[in-house]
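Why should sequence recovery work at all? Because a backbone constrains its sequence more than one might expect. Tight turns favour small or flexible residues, buried strands favour hydrophobic ones, and helices have their own preferences. The token representation captures these environments compactly. In the example below, the structure is given first.
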């Protein structure tokens, strides 16, 4: 990687799980002063890019834009648009991710399944009381109205916790909810109370990682075309004031997760190569391209927007 990447190049990486395989690409981009984009959804890796590699990238002139796919561009965009509509009274943002529809067969690739299972074993993050905090995945549970029905989600760490406080410095809370699990969300929420205890048991994390490997070994490298047919990604962002009153809501709907990620990465890489980005260091999508430009790129990538 170091031999291939030069200053000003645009490097796009989709390797995963990123905690196992992703560091070589980001380190090469930092050293070269390149523009880096990845497709990770892994909270620990997202935080590592911002906190570990971000300061190094500022010094070298590199730009790092992590999680530029279905995780977590739609939530950053929806949250930023809702914040703009809400005005200066915003105190809390909740973002929910849901996947609906699809046909029969395997809906996720082996790499995605390994990454998702790994989230439960790694530390997550949240933005609470105006600062970044560490917590287990699934620490909170809530429902969102999606496609006319209440649907549950559990909290995870995304890039929204880094991006949205930059858009509205007075924000006290940013929570991101993953609603891929349906009725199993409640069980995941309960399990979040046990996960921190397992970390104190010698060898427990290694054993759980081995189980995750066994579970995903039979999965295919790519999802089936039948499963992807008719699949849609739904993202909801809601902004509240300090008393809990809803100020604004933004909804985004897009094609299946893999098509959306591919389209977003292609748009961002082309845009960065032709026009550059708005700074160096670890940038969120809004900071890198500007809200209106990101909005236009998301529309080109297939996202349909509804604001209320």
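From this structural description, the recovered sequence reads:
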């Amino acid at each position: 990687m170091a031999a291939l990447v030069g200053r000003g190049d645009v490097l796009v990486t989709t390797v995963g799980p990123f905690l196992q395989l992703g560091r070589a690409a980001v380190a090469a981009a930092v050293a070269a002063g390149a523009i880096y984009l990845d497709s990770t959804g892994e909270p620990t890796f997202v935080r590592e890019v911002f906190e570990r590699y971000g300061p190094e990238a500022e010094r070298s002139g590199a730009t790092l834009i992590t999680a530029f796919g279905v995780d977590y561009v739609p939530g950053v965009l929806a949250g930023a648009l809702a914040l703009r509509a809400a005005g200066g009274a915003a105190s809390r943002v909740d973002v929910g991710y849901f996947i609906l529809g699809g046909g029969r067969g395997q809906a996720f690739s082996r790499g995605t399944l390994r990454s998702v299972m790994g989230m439960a074993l790694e530390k997550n993050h949240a933005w609470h009381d105006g600062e970044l905090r560490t917590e287990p995945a699934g620490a909170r549970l809530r429902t969102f109205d999606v496609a006319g029905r209440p649907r549950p989600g559990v909290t995870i760490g995304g890039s929204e916790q880094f991006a949205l406080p930059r858009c509205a410095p007075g924000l006290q809370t940013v929570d991101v909810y993953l609603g891929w699990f349906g009725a199993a969300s409640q069980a995941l929420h309960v399990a979040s109370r046990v996960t921190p205890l397992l970390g104190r048991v010698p060898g427990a994390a290694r054993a759980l990682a081995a189980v995750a490997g066994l579970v995903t070994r039979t999965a295919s490298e790519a999802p089936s075309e039948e499963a992807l047919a008719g699949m849609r990604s739904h993202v909801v962002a809601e902004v509240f004031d300090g008393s809990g009153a809803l100020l604004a809501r933004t909804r985004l709907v897009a094609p299946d997760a893999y098509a959306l990620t591919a389209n977003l990465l292609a748009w961002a890489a082309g845009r960065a190569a032709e026009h550059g980005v708005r700074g160096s260091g670890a940038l969120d999508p809004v900071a890198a391209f500007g809200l209106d430009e990101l909005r236009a790129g998301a529309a080109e990538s297939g996202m349909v927007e509804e604001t209320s």
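A few observations help interpret the result. The longest strand covers residues 92-100.
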